Amino acid sequence: MNTTAVNTTPGALMLAEIREQPDVLARQLDTELERIRSVAAHLRAARPTTVLLAARGTSDHAAIYAKYLIETTLGLPCGLASMSTFTAYRAQARYENTLWIAISQSGGSPDLIQSTQRAAHCGATTLAITNSPDSPLASTSQMSISIEAGTERAVAATKSYTASLQAIWLLVDLWSGGDGSAARTLTDHMRRQVDRDDVLEVASRYRFIDRVITVGRGFSYPTAREGALKMMETSYVGAQAFSGADLLHGPVAMVDTACPVLVVGAAGMTADLLAPVVDRLHDRGADICVVGPPSVQARLPAAIRLLTPEGVDERLAPIVQIVPLQVLARQMATDRGHDPDQPRGLSKATSTR
Amino acid sequence: MNTTAVNTTPGALMLAEIREQPDVLARQLDTELERIRSVAAHLRAARPTTVLLAARGTSDHAAIYAKYLIETTLGLPCGLASMSTFTAYRAQARYENTLWIAISQSGGSPDLIQSTQRAAHCGATTLAITNSPDSPLASTSQMSISIEAGTERAVAATKSYTASLQAIWLLVDLWSGGDGSAARTLTDHMRRQVDRDDVLEVASRYRFIDRVITVGRGFSYPTAREGALKMMETSYVGAQAFSGADLLHGPVAMVDTACPVLVVGAAGMTADLLAPVVDRLHDRGADICVVGPPSVQARLPAAIRLLTPEGVDERLAPIVQIVPLQVLARQMATDRGHDPDQPRGLSKATSTR
After folding, report:
1. Fewest Cβ atoms closer than 10 Å to its Cβ: which of A1, A326, B252, B326?
2. In terms of pTM, does the model score above 0.90?
3. Please, which residues bridge with residue B239 across strands?
């Protein structure tokens, strides 16, 4: 039976879920847009003055994306929540004009549920973004959005990440007065990303690495973070993600000819900010792979490249650019004889306090 | 001449500055307390409802410390600023009730100066915490605090880090109605930390590592981050820092018997939150070193340990606990034949955009 085959081929689940992403994004637009519109309308009326984002793992990278999007689109001060402030230190907070957004695929981690309840108790408006609309996190939040990614079976999250990003983009676009229509261009771009052979060359070059550094800036930084996490959890590589500026403030010293660097390029001003970082990495002899569209590749010289489509809005690009890194992580894992559907030491839903 | 000797022995500058820390903390208390008190009084009157912290490198870890301290002591929503929001995306922000705190040893990095100016333009109250009271960052900010660490010559920051932490602790303690006197206990604790032989055992065990993971939680998380940075920039080790909870959400898969883990323990509830993390690390066969006082060591079983003093308030402990990691990073670097005073590819003041 097909189901059995899917369960026994290493990485088959992860690959199937990577390929499912264009359909997931299209379906979410069809079924969830009105729900997201009503949440956006509520937020326009509530006029929060501050936004806090609570999440862990892959969802934490969706939270970093949300932070850039909210700051640049809505101009609100925005931060990533430290859950231990509530779970370890029982803080009394003044959150009267604060929007607390909790992002979680499973909606089940106790620290996220407890800190969301505490945030509400301290006056925050709470919103859950989950793949589990009946989860404790969704139930305990005042509002919730379902990302509608469908059941995710591979331990390494893929479709729930891009579905979270699109839901966040839609929310912020509608909140700021847009109509969400630009997301309709994503599905076609995604279809061209999910099956690609150029990843094989990078996977082959990275066959025996023990460490890798990923670099982004602004909207490409969450992609660098999520790409690093995929490699850590499927290929057991010591993958470290940095913002290009933070890398130069110390960590660049550890870069040498034996340490590959994967630079996630983005268009516009971000490419300008990454250019001096790439220069410094070349000075250190790094083997560089640039992920990005042809126009960015032309500005960031590299030994190898992973092309992504030209002309995608920089705020939507993270949804497209993560795909080659998902495919790469799966390929590296299976090349090394690991099963990225069942990484050692991990289970699908992680409970932390 | 002595000066020449200091300049030619690898790591001599860094060691001298590590040893200087007790005196730096005492001097700051003597000369800066009144200045910090007047800033605190201004903030009590201004009543900001949100705090953003802007910093890079070592100062970014001081910012993470400030975030926990402000959240748990003052209950204000608090976040780390993304400078590219201004430098790359030219965002228009609504910062009327926001306090923007910029932390920098040199006070000279263009991104920090530009984003602080933009934050003020968008309505924020701006405060600089620097080791250079005449720097462009201090001059452009509405208020400034000098950490009075004296000239820091080693590229790897040590005394400017602990001096920043103490200045932040004093500010928050005075802001919340305290008298800052608890900091007076730090100097004695620090004197017992700066010269210690137990670090030699850990440095010897880590002589040939290529990667290391550091773990903290809550107030011990900035110590894990700063310890990792010290090892990256002086010993060129791929050091990755995680909050204990974030580690379990994926990255723990890469931990194996070849990857040492350094756990920065803290007292109270934080030790409870780290105990299940240490259990999971043992399941993965990790070689664990715990940094912490005897009571915490008793709860977190490990192969080796770095003892820190018992009874230090958890909010002040990060100032004391970073010291053995500074000493360790310097020892590892010199054991490997590197000069931590002049790491490859780095200069003392880093300019990023």
Report:
1. A1
2. yes
3. B212
